[in-house]
Amino acid sequence: MLREELPKIITDTLPGPKASEIIERRKKATPSAIRCVYPCVIKRGEGAMIEDVDGNYFLDWVGGVGVLNMGYSKPEVVEAVTEQAQRFFHSMFNITTHEGYVALAEKMNEIAPVKGEVKKTFFTNSGAEADENAVKIAKAFTKRPNIIVFTGAFHGRTALTMAMTSKKSYAVGMGPFPDGVYRAPYPYLYRKPEGMTEEEAINFYLKKLNDVFEEASPAEYVAAIVLEPLQGEGGFIPAPIEWVKAVRKICDEKGIMLVVDEVQSGFCRTGKMFASCYWAEAGCAPDILATAKSIAAGVPLSAIVAREEIMESVPGGVIGGTFGGNALACASALKVIDIMEKEDFAGKAMTIGNKLRDRFNGLKEELPVIGDIRGLGAMIGIEFVKDPVTKEPNTELVTKLVQYCANHGLLIENAGTYLNVVRFLAPLVITDEQLEAGMKILEDGIRELS
């Protein structure tokens, strides 16, 4: 079966002849702004493996950029979606109630680590929609206009979420952006100010956050502080828990909603169902959670969860939409969560992450281009530098490494402000043999290119 295979390239060149033809058709039919640097055209996928149209096998460590924690074509999920499709595809929740939406909302209320005993959930289609709706809810509850976001953040490509996103290469020529979005430095401890201890750096970043209230928006006008518990596009940077505790305290003191963007980090990727479960265990749970990507194994769906008093502050008609909570997506998500809980996907993530850390931490002394290895669970980032002392980003190496790995049957993706981080987002159903094969391809690439 494909799900048990290892990387194997059988064509003389990549892309192969059939893939080349389709890629040429792509160039003529679709915008070049939607880039793709990978030399393969998928025919089918199972587990963590892709077979392309030319018969090459690729091990996928990108997983649709965090969408496929459950892997490709999980039979039980396929069965659940098929069963739903045989009854009906869609029924707008504003018009007719369907039980799948209600059951999934009940399940999300049970597992989401937000503050409050009684919670409510509603569904949209994408991560950007979830983030934007989380902000709308925070504004409705607080009656305040502004939000604070962070350097390195990625929240989406709608008008508001482009403003929230730090890297403006995602928003070239798209201004002016919505007002009321202010930015503070995110605690990037690998690149903290020189000479500071971690404790001193955390205090430094907290001061910078408090400076926003003095220099940009008074606290009484801030509806929400929005952050990723582990930055995705920003370079797989975990928020230090002591910093999160302090941010939670600031929010409590100033009446600000703490909104967690778990679009990429949710659904067992970090060794918990949500990365903010770590926050809840430390006594600093968020007020509002936005999540998407792996929620439904590839069927478009996103969710927003908050305690009842926050949700019920929203005026009628302000939230909702035609496709939010689509019946096929809800059926998929219910089965995904059931499997993840029964088969301990959070434990799988911890095992995978520990193997990755052990392997590449062991190479740091030998290969000084490896600057930092960080993350939570199986959400691991490896940052590459030209010099371990100056920490000058090694973007060129990572660019070449992406192509090297693809040519050897492994799909990896870059991240980070300087695009010098390799991020690990492989499906959590990856086999031990596939994980070893992928690590060897990556290690061989690092050795050869550095």
UniProtKB/TrEMBL annotation:
Co-factor(s): pyridoxal 5'-phosphate
Keywords: Aminotransferase, Pyridoxal phosphate, Transferase
Pfam families on file: Aminotran_3
Stored InterPro entries: Aminotrans_3, Aminotrans_3_PPA_site, Class-III_PLP-dep_AT, PyrdxlP-dep_Trfase, PyrdxlP-dep_Trfase_major, PyrdxlP-dep_Trfase_small
CDD domains given in the database record: OAT_like
Protein family according to the UniProt entry: Belongs to the class-III pyridoxal-phosphate-dependent aminotransferase family.
Protein name: (S)-3-amino-2-methylpropionate transaminase
